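Lab manual, section 2.4: Encoding a predicted structure.

Procedure: take the sequence of the chain (275 residues), apply the prediction step described in section 2.3, and record the output as structure tokens. A sample record is shown.
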Amino acid sequence: MNFREIEKVIEGIQTSDGAGVSLTRIIGSPELNMLDPFLLLDEFGSDDPNDYIAGFPPHPHRGFETITYMLNGKWQHRDSAGNEGLLGDGSVQWMTAGRGIVHSEMPIQTDGLVRGFQLWLNLPKEKKMIDPAYQDIESDQIPVVNETAGTVKVISGEYRGTVGPGRSHTPVLILDIRLNTESAITIPVTDGWNVFSFIYEGDLVSGKNLSKGQLAVYEKTGDIHFKTGESKAGIYLAAGEPLNEPVARGGPFVMNTRGEILKAFEDYQNGKFES
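Recorded output:
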């Protein structure tokens, strides 16, 4: 069986976003600007309310999708399209910004642990100006495949015949993998897709050793093989078909040209994201 080799291992940078939420930026950092079609990956996690209580007040997006996966915590989503959702333990908020949306993500807890990920998924050129959309996916709506080695939670895409509820405009596979000690598992991935794994608990001993807080980027052909030693492991894995299109960034907007970015700022300032 052909397994992908690890090309790069990074750990991200400590930063803050929103109104001062502390987080680690792994994709979208100087070490890894993007991994087509993934534009950004943030990990947030703290039991200190000062690190998250200010939340993410209303702010705009255009041209991509945001996928927020909450391991622990309770946050409230509201947006200019009239959508509201409660993001709780094990749930997913999947927002398609499309032609433009203004949203907020605010904690509805004042203490306790908050932990999760936000992934930005690029939209193809022909879909950047589609209508905004929102998917509120509860934890019990996300299927879990029980394996000898542990469990595989299928957030989006297909894993061994089980399809996740997250609907994307770019073909992707997003999994939360929990492995027991002294275990091994192989994850099939489409050849040609870009794939990363982020270790959020424990360690891996397959190929290059990987530790908690490290992200691995893999070659483009073959499957992914994980193996644990004396510790269990939690792995956030995402794979996607590259768009191979120009990328222009401007703060909360991601388009194909600089002119389109300037138009996004103009439209936002003129209130066109509110309708």
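Check your result against the sample. Residues 248 and 259 are 9 Å apart (CA to CA).
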